[in-house]
Amino acid sequence: MDAYSILEIVRNIVYSGVLLIALVYSCLILLISRFRHQNNMFILNLCVNTMTTCIYFIIYFYAIYYDMPQSMCILFNYAFNIASIQIPFAFVAFTVHRFCVIVYHTKALFKTKQWVVICILTQWIAQFVISLPFVFEYYDDCTSNTVWMGFYTLITAVILPSSINMILNICIFIHVRKSSLRVHPRRLNTITNGINHQQSRISRRDISLLKQMIFTFTMFIIGWTPALVINTVDVMIFVNFDVQMASVYLSVICLLAVIINLFIYNHEIRRYLFDSIRRCFHC
């Protein structure tokens, strides 16, 4: 067995590890009712997107060695773009949700389960629609790529979601800053006015969660971007195979780091899982 085969096995083991962690995370949220609140439903959505991405790329690195008919190549490349964009789009769905909940806190709709469903469903529809141009492309073989396809995936997987996230997060922090400035003078008038709405609207937990998701999204983009850039550049100029593989492994490792980070940050689920494991050993 050569070094490349060993690296392929290691890569698929890491993908399988990410898949397993995301599956366990998803089951905990789905099966235990107290974990099924709004924020965890978006984490569940992120886990589902992560699992489908892992499944696709595990299949992808085996399927590229086989000849497929044109219809399968179309489906194969269509699924490639979906797998590339669905995790960053899941982060965008969460950011849109938090933006509406924090900035438009007086609107009852944004506090309902229906709004969570709308955000998540819109994200899934968007990623399927945005990837449609790949359906109308002709492929000489399933591994062939064109410059526009590479740029399109790079834009939709990195530039577009990063821009939306950045704009919405800036708006959120501007709103939070203005709200905190309004709170201080109102405290002086609390006795006479009897009202201080802003103080209870934005909790430290909200801001902490938002910062954590920004950090996680940034970590994902840092890991995902080199592979997509090389996927695009390789069409125009030759890129050393070792460099290509290094970018792939960086994306896999960052994906593992993202899912572990989300688990570590979720104190409620982490505590429940560790307590359950401890009880099992004591038995």
Automatic annotation (TrEMBL):
This is G-protein coupled receptors family 1 profile domain-containing protein. The keyword Cytoplasm does not apply. Gene3D superfamilies: Rhodopsin 7-helix transmembrane proteins (1.20.1070.10). The chain crosses the membrane at residues 12-31, 43-66, 78-103, 115-136, 148-176, 214-239, 245-265. It holds the Pfam family 7tm_1. Keywords: Cell membrane, G-protein coupled receptor, Membrane, Receptor, Transducer, Transmembrane, Transmembrane helix. It is found in: Cell membrane. PROSITE patterns: G_PROTEIN_RECEP_F1_2 (PS50262). Residues 16-265 form the G-protein coupled receptors family 1 profile domain.
